[in-house]
Amino acid sequence: GAHQVISGLVKLVDQNNSPLMPGYTVRINGQQDGVVGYDGEVFIPNLLKQNKLEIDLLDHGSCQVDFAYENKQYSAKKLGPY
């Protein structure tokens, strides 16, 4: 049957609240890879109720972000910063 797929942009920031640099690889919910774009934004093609992003910061190690998403029909699909 048909099911609804919700996509959105998530903004990722560092400990100083500055957007992450573009180009870092992001593992999305353990399944697929994305890339950090300008302004620290990552496109998430399939938002879940509970989401996990693992960001490879190259020589700076890695970090993980867990966040919940609740589908509201009229809400904007820009999330974060995290």
How does this model look, in words?
The chain has 82 residues and is mainly β. The protein contains no helices and 7 strands. It has strands at residues 8-11, 25-28, 32-35, 41-44, 50-56, 62-68, 78-79. It has a 4-stranded antiparallel beta sheet, with no helix packed on it. Strands 4-1-7 form a 3-stranded mixed beta sheet, with no helix packed on it. The radius of gyration is 13 Å and the shape is globular.
Please supply descriptive tags for the structure shown above.
mainly beta; 39% strand; single chain; globular; Immunoglobulin-like
Helix content: under 10%
Question: How widely separated are the two ends?
Answer: 34 Å
Low-confidence parts = none
Mean pLDDT: 89
Which CATH-level-2 architecture?
Answer: Sandwich
In the CATH hierarchy, what is the class?
A: Mainly Beta
Strands, total number: 7
CATH topology: Immunoglobulin-like
CATH homology-level superfamily: PapC, C-terminal domain
Structural class of the secondary structure composition?
mainly beta
Q: What's the helix count?
A: 0
User: What order do the strands of the largest sheet run in, or round the barrel if closed?
Assistant: 3-2-5-6
Order of helices and strands: EEEEEEE
Please, what is the oligomeric state? single chain
User: Using only CA atoms, what is the Rg?
Assistant: 13 Å
Biggest sheet overview: 4 strands, antiparallel
Provide the β-strand percentage band. 35-45%
Gross morphology: globular
Number of domains: 1
